[in-house]
Amino acid sequence: MSVSEIDWAARKGVPAVSRLSWIEALLISGFTGGMFALGMALYIAWWVRNRRKTGAAFYVYSTVMVLALIGFLPFKFLQQSGAWEYVDTVASLVWILNAFVLRQELRRFYKSPSGGELEMSPFFTAIFSVFYLNYCLWVVRDSA
Description:
The chain is an all-alpha fold. The chain has one domain (37-143). The protein contains 6 helices and no strands. It is elongated and about 55 Å long. It starts with a helix and ends with a helix.
């Protein structure tokens, strides 16, 4: 067994949150106002960051988390609440774009030495974001 095969076998794990089905994650996110989805995205990005030693997605999701938490502050604490609507809009766009960054990090992490890649649709990544990425991890979990 070559060194690259050993590394590939050791990297075949999946984040613990990937045990949730997409419908379970969607329901929990609905009941928590979307904060579970953000937590799930942070956890998956953190998990990949700890294994690949690169974490652009983790830092961007952390920024989105801070912006989301600021959005929960009462308006009396925020001066010019209209300006914060633009921040929320930018955070939403960053959330969608960062799903593609996380998608790329996952694809690089699960790329096999023989050239096989984890297939993830860009269309579904744009529509379902972290729920779809979590769903794609089921393929890895079931093949391990």
